[in-house]
Amino acid sequence: MLASALVGRRAHAATLRAFSTAAPRPVLQSATVTDVAAPQDIKGGTVSETGDVLLVDKTLTYRALQLPTAGLKADLRGAMASSDEPLKHVEADAAKFFSLERSIAFPSLFYHMGMCGKMRQEKELKTAAAMVRTEGLALRDELLWRAARAPDEMHSLKGSSGLVLTGDQGCGKSWALNYAAAACEAAGWLVVLAPWAADWTMGVGALSPKAANEAYRVADRDYFRSLPPELAGTALYDSPDASIGFLQSVYFSQREKLERLPIKGEERKAAYASVAGDRPPTLADILFKVAHGDGAVFNDFPVPVRPTYDFLQELRTVTDVPVLLAVDGWNLWRGMASSREWRSPTPLHARQLLVPSLLGTLDFGAGMQNGIMLCAVSHSPPDAPATPSRLRKHFPPPTDWARPQALREPFRSAVRHVPAFSGKEMHAMLNFYCAVGHVRNVGLQPQLESGELARKVMMMTGGVGDDVFKLCGKL
Predict the structure, then answer these.
(1) Which of these, 306, 311, 335, lies nearest to 325 by C-alpha position?
(2) β-strand partners of 30
(3) Which of 33, 93, 142, 366 could form a disulfide with 161 if both were Cys (CB 3.0 to 4.6 A apart)?
């Protein structure tokens, strides 16, 4: 858990100071990332003028979190993990903390793609301290073990459709997904992350269907003039804001890897040859115009559909590096969307949208040549519209992930359960919350030291991380 979750689409540059009882280690002072220019960047005159989308190189600086000088005295002996790199953690690091922002995954992955989760805890704690959990270690090791197997072996990435993280609401499924993504990034995988599936069905950042979400029919030639042959004449729709943000995030985060991966589809090779010039076209060329706004890419309104489809199809053919395709809130793609059919009051189902239709089942993962899907399901989704009775015969009901024992194959064998906090984890988390001032009642000092506070919090929350955070904020 990120004590207990993580910030969303942009991570803040603040790191946890190594506790005085931990071994000293070097602190990353800064990192440089390329990002879309904000108004303040334009005023500063530091932007590049390549293409229609202005870009800027930003330097992320890191400062230590100042722990409170007064308040509860927490026992932090042995609180820090042996490393800040998820790839280097061992079983002895379980229930200990590390700084995710000091790992290589922060500037290279999460800055652009964002982290999965509900986004509020880090803002209040002003830190990105994360707990190493046994379940996260097991998930990391399973993915790396599958990647090490020969493609023709059973349980290799090619022979695996995907893994589905389940568990009670607030228990840490999103953090387990983040942890696995950070480890795979450090191991050199191509990591493609969709931090919140509802971006496509409810609108980017939406938490309810009250705000209208626009969706456009991809076969409508008045809007989209450049389509892959496979989409011509289809009844699919696209949510442009979600898709364009997804493609840009992947491009800026994984550009160096994408530039080494050739396009394998012959029709797609020809379609992107003009971008590549004299060299063979790569996956980076599919996303280049979307990220830079070069040429006629925005002749389609509101954004082009072709790169979204082409990139996902080429992702299935990648064999040069292992591929992790991670989706948080994946089960939201089996319900209704807040957008409507073209010139009709009939609401759209997620399966009628381009990205959810492609990635909403494990079939996509089964077709990946050297990759795997990792999906976390949400038990606290936005209040999506109910499926109208006239549409229920066309769309199957959502899977009941709260009862994994009742699932059919291949879902049952794909499930990986994420439990609530153990007693050991609860003790470590309470000490951390006291150290950073999230628990402010100094009268609780005797109960903290005797373990009585941990026992009471466990009884009241059942070890659910989100509930622990809420309760501690009231103490």
Answers:
(1) 311
(2) 61
(3) 366
Measured distance CA(276)–CA(255) in Å, rounded = 14
Amino acid of residue 419: P
Partnered with residue 200 across adjacent β-strands are none
Task: Give residue-wise pLDDT tens across range 278-329.
Answer: 999 999 999 998 887 654 545 555 567 899 999 999 999 999 999 999 999 9
CA atoms within 13 A on the CB side of 271: 21
Residue 209 has which token pair?
A: 């269907």
Spatial distance between the Cα atoms of 468 and 459, rounded to a whole number of angstroms: 10
Q: Could you tell me which of 387, 9, 391, 402 has the C-alpha nearest to residue 201?
A: 387
**Residues with pLDDT less than 50, the chain:** 1-29, 62-65, 120-122, 124-126, 295, 297
Between CA 379 and CA 332 the distance in angstroms is 10
Q: What is the 3-state secondary structure (H, E, C) of 93-108?
A: HCCCEEEHHHCCHHHH
Rounded CA-CA distance 101/126 in Å is 12
Sign of the Cα pseudo-torsion (395, 400, 404, 407, in order): negative
Task: Name the one residue in this structure whose structure tokens are 């870009």.
Answer: 55
Residue 386: count other Cβ atoms within 10 Å of its Cβ: 10
How many CB atoms within 10 Å of residue 164?
A: 27
The 3-state secondary structure of the chain reads CCCCCCCCCCCCCCECCCCCCCCCCCCCCEEEEEEECCHHHHHHCCCECCCCCCEEEEEEECCECCCCCCCCCCCCCCCECCCCCHHHCCHHHCCCEEEHHHCCHHHHHHHHHCCCCCCCHHHHHCCCEEECCHHHHHHHHHHHHHHHCCCCCCCCCCCCCEEEEECCCCCCHHHHHHHHHHHHHHCCCEEEEECCCHHHHCCCCCCCCCCCCCCEECCCCCCCCCCCHHHCCCCCEECHHHHHHHHHHHHHHHHHHHCCCECCCHHHHHHCHHHHCCCCCEHHHHHHHHHHCCCCHHHCCCCCCHHHHHHHHHHCCCCCCCEEEEEECHHHHHCEEEEECCCCCCEEEHHHEHHHHHHCCCHHHHCCCCEEEEEECCCCCCCCCCCCHHHCCCCCCCCCCCCHHHCCCCHHHHEEECCCCCHHHHHHHHHHHHHCCCCCCHHHHHHHHHCHHHHHHHHHHCCCHHHHHHHHHHC
